[in-house]
Protein 1
Amino acid sequence: MLVSGRHFFPDVAPRSLGHKALAVNLSDLAAMGAEPRAFTLALALPDAQAAWLSELAAGMLELADAHGCELIGGDTTRGPLTLSLTVFGDVPVHKALRRDAARPGDDIWISGTLGDARLALGDFRGEWLLPEPDFSQVRPRMDTPTPRIALGMALRGVAHAALDISDGLVGDLGHILERSQVGALLDVDALPRSTVLASQPEARQLECTLAGGDDYELCFTAPVGERDRIAAIGARLGLAVTRVGAITPEAGLRLVDREGNPSAYHGTSFDHFASP
Amino acid sequence: MLVSGRHFFPDVAPRSLGHKALAVNLSDLAAMGAEPRAFTLALALPDAQAAWLSELAAGMLELADAHGCELIGGDTTRGPLTLSLTVFGDVPVHKALRRDAARPGDDIWISGTLGDARLALGDFRGEWLLPEPDFSQVRPRMDTPTPRIALGMALRGVAHAALDISDGLVGDLGHILERSQVGALLDVDALPRSTVLASQPEARQLECTLAGGDDYELCFTAPVGERDRIAAIGARLGLAVTRVGAITPEAGLRLVDREGNPSAYHGTSFDHFASP
């Protein structure tokens, strides 16, 4: 459920909102290796403005069509602007990627790059100011994220555990560790980032890559023996896949830098109940 | 999607709210002749109060258990109090009851009684005042409606068209007429009503039975040859089923009284976008 003022700005462009509302749900399918089939949309809005609704629908249906995902039902009512989508997908029996399947020795992988959505958000919020060309480059990562459907499906039978990074890598990876009853060693310097983010101060890079969230990249674990296959999948999809650490038998998440020294980072994840 | 202040009172008992939020969705399954299987719940709430949530869950899960309907997913976030449920049910291929299947000559049937939910709401709103025993009797029809699941399933292959009455009989029956490209003759004096409602002024009875909504009874059409079977189904389920009119080839809904004279009633249905 996406609530105005919490999950998006009240004055967000409706086309972006339509795209993102579906994208974040498709991303949940991607994280399980599922193929999208259909979705429902429940919508509360303060008033029924035809132009606004038409733009919202356009952004949503364009992405839906790209994934062969049909709108099959839902409802609309008056109320504070809120969207609630339920998506349906298929995955063969026992082939779904899960959070509880990471095993000690697994590599930890990240798709694409992390942190750009958070970097754009910081500019929006006035936490920092980006040069206009930089902002234009990272903004689409916040406004119109790309669900990694093809990657998720390709990882069936290859990856052990997977999820999509929506609330921040540290918190989200924590879910895998907890559910799988394992720990992890993560090389914070190996985390993939855009050239725009790489030009930012070091502390901000850490903040954005480790706690940013909203990038909707996949984080997955896989046996060391699958490295070549995963690299080939990334090459075929034209999508970077980067090894950033390993699953350990001991509980807990240890962050280290490229020299193996403990990282100074202490951050947190997006809290859905924190004050806005 | 159910929005606080629009679909329920902000201070509603959470147990009732939990029941009703699921009941109105199960009612949609009932109207199609489907058997409930599972549901998801997306919930926005201003703050996470354990006692309130526990009551909400109790009301919801009690009804879910009664119908073998499992909660399989969803999410919670902070926001204006809003519930969005998606229910899943099974119905054999080509056996679903539809809105576009009414045929001229069909009887029009109503389950249970109509208007008590609206009668209770009017007391709540101060439109009229009911004696306490009367109010106590009709209030559960507003707070904890009963989805007519067993009836819907029994009507597979018997009824032609069906829907559940949520926004008011005139408006809801209008959907069947429009989709089926037929009209109807409705005897307003035949509409089933409780003894409490039957003791109210005539105009109020008409208002409550014809435009009340929120009763979640089924309105369905069926061939004249099915009268005995439908009566038997009602008897088996211990649920009144009442013939209230007939489908006509000419478009339009004509309301008549028991003598066949035009009814003076001019009303409307619940508008999800009207000002509260």
Protein 2
Amino acid sequence: MSKIVDVKFELKTYKYYKPFHITGSVSDSSTNIEVVVITDIGIKGYGEISPSFRVNGEKVEGLYKLEAAIKESIVNMDVKEYRRIFDVLDKFFATPSVKAGVQYAVLDAFSEEINTPVYYLLGGMKREIETDKTVGIDTIENMVKEAKEIFSEGFKNIKIKVGEDLRKDIETVEEIARNTKEAKYIVDANMGYTPKQAVEFVRVLYKKGVDISVFEQPVVASDIDGLKYVRFNSPYPVAADESAKSKYDVYRLIREEAVDFVNIKLMKSGLSDALAIVEMVKTANLKLMIGCMGESSLGINQSVNFALGTGAFVFHDLDSHLMLKENKFRGKFKQNGSKITIL
Amino acid sequence: MSKIVDVKFELKTYKYYKPFHITGSVSDSSTNIEVVVITDIGIKGYGEISPSFRVNGEKVEGLYKLEAAIKESIVNMDVKEYRRIFDVLDKFFATPSVKAGVQYAVLDAFSEEINTPVYYLLGGMKREIETDKTVGIDTIENMVKEAKEIFSEGFKNIKIKVGEDLRKDIETVEEIARNTKEAKYIVDANMGYTPKQAVEFVRVLYKKGVDISVFEQPVVASDIDGLKYVRFNSPYPVAADESAKSKYDVYRLIREEAVDFVNIKLMKSGLSDALAIVEMVKTANLKLMIGCMGESSLGINQSVNFALGTGAFVFHDLDSHLMLKENKFRGKFKQNGSKITIL
């Protein structure tokens, strides 16, 4: 038996090396909550809550106050019975990052109890994955410079943030493509375009001979018809991110044939919904990528274990910890540039 | 590391206490294949292949000859990386009971290696489940007698086989209901009716005040439109069994809104597809039951662990081992009449 006796939340703030600018948002720092689940035999499981107000409507100062409610709801439960605990935590659906961080901490405690890494618990599908690195919104000149640096550091997949200025965005992607040949591009508009702008964007770039591996969330989250319109008019695969939070969102996206790709982020779904999304998307023969919010290495560890264990992802956008200043690396994995491997 | 060094198949035949009669089939015995997966540190994982020619088109004499092909495909793989092995075994989709028994044996070996029961690996959702017991097709008098015996043995859920004679079937279910008040009934036609007969069946029984918890597979497996017609004209929940083998079958059933319930049998799906079906069906807000073919306690152990771990099932029809003569109980669980509990 390994019953939960305590759950602790601790606020941690990490500075970005450089302010991170995406459509409608600039961040200087990321404030997360470190979660520790403690069991009666002294095992500690760790997780991290990295909320996004923009995506989930969550504010860290409110989430932090849920410590007692979370503890009350799962205290005395056995971490081996993790699905029971996941079910209880599913009731915190309106604060999905809390659900995610606590669910992971529970699985981490179970993993420690049986001395088996989480990536094996989840299936041990891959031994190595490769993350992209992200170019935030900036001047064209600076974005091209940053993309070149990222590429020269060995990242083969580059994520490019667009969505605030159609003409400039087209020029930026074209310039980056010209300067980093053989890289692959995930272009993320973070809901910045109208459906027609999004189609214009891909058509112009396609005519210029630019290849885009994934075109992410071109339109606002609620516009599923718009997403479908872009999908059926885009030569590149179209992904849902902000539109795909819970498993119910993804169920609807599949039924409505609205996307080619789903971007899973544990902070939007928790582990419970993320596992369901993996199975649904694979069955529907669509593709998956995995992304992050502003996690430190502790939080990225969650997504890395999920990605290695399920092996479900074509692209991994797990780079927030590379953009944040941290004193100590806390992942239970090895990182060498873009390469992430099991211990 | 715990790498697979050998896989062994052994034929085992079990006699039924009483010939088991369902629509279009009478069985005196069940011939299964015991699977042993052996790893380089001497761990043995056990599974059982219990084929159904009627449902899956599988013949045990052919399956038995796959021993070498199975061994060749998974030898040297590490049981901790079970999803990798599941993926390889998914290629044996045309022999799903082989896929099921071998996938389970792999998970059993992993479970032994880390000294953690499979039901905890899968989530530890439930500590106890309750199985029904089945009344095969016979005279009305004998069927009522058997139902009364089952009920008096403490089984609250009774499965009733129908499908060969509409008028007699209606009378049988009515009589059983009158003689076992407070029992719940899963009525299984095993594809025996036309869609209109099926609707007639439920309408007449409904008017007589008989309650049916699940009406299983009224029409032939391929008739998804017929299944949907029955669903929308039945006051009772309608389940797919023979229509729901792979995860792709279930994906289609969900999209076409054809059923209320899905009956998962590991022998139709293997563990890999069964896990996907659980997630899809729960997301779509439909219900699940779990059933069996002609498994001995070794094979029922697989479904029991799956059901306890995922906790996904409203009804458990895991009674084949109760109908077969066995020298030794081989489940890694406790059974007391209808009650099945963790060790």
